[in-house]
Amino acid sequence: MGLEERRDREPDVYQPAEDSELLAEAACERLGGSDLVLEVGTGSGYVAGRIADGTSARVIASDLNPHAVRQARREGVETVRADLVSPFRDETFDAVVFNPPYLPTDPENEWDDWMEHALSGGEDGRAVIDPFLDNVGRVLAPDGVVYLLVSSLTGVDGVVERAGEAGFSAVAVADESFPFETLTVLELLR
After folding, report:
1. For residue 115, is it within any domain?
2. Predicted confidence (pLDDT) per residue in 135-177, tens digit
3. 108 CB-near residues (< 8 Å, 6+ apart)
4. Comparing C-alpha atoms, which of 64, 126, 135, 124 is closest to residue 101?
């Protein structure tokens, strides 16, 4: 399914955009056949659905937003309500995919709703990325991989450095430039 209008869109849910498409394509090109994949922050369920349809991987999705969980389930995605990787068992997933909230946001300009949570990465754009990097290694199988979408607005080099501090090596596997930013999919390995 492309980026076309979804059946039952929830107004408080991040809907697929160019970043979703880039991450889905990169993950589908690289994932193996019998992988167990976790998509963190699934939003509409678009990326998880694309991975499930484009590979033979089993995909589980999570989101903190209850509206997102509901929409993703309606799209046929196995989805649980969760904060990042907190409820999942150690060494469970062959791959973890994440399109985090990455837009740098002035604290005085933030609003308190579900779309803010889907978009705002805090002052430096890494308010969600850093805790994710601190914890994702726990749920990865020994040879597991992470596909993380980041923006030039967040600072790709800073994210790569932070990933290194969390025990990962990082390589860019896809990118796409837009007038105000470049989006990059990082492949993280231990």
Report:
1. yes
2. 999 999 999 999 999 999 899 999 999 999 999 999 999 999 9
3. none
4. 126
